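Listing S7. Sequence submitted for prediction.
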Amino acid sequence: MKWDDVTLAIFAAFGCIMLLLAQVSEVLSRLPQIIRAWHQVRQELNGSADSGSRDHATDATDPGTREIGPSSPGGAGGDTSGEAPAG
């Protein structure tokens, strides 16, 4: 084995290590954004599942009316569609 081969192997190994460290650094720098996005996705899924089940229950009786629940100050009921109340 020649010194050229050893030097090339050392350079290749250090190059691979530097590439790996750069990739790990990129992932770690974006980790807070990924976590925030994941929490937002989970909140959207939980919110749409909750509002979807409530809307489905009220739509089964009469599509034109909505229930007004006791837990809703102001009489918004289970309406989470963001529309202004009629009337």
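Caption to Listing S7: primary sequence and predicted structure tokens for the chain studied. Residues 3-61 form the longest helix (59 residues). The mean pLDDT is 76.
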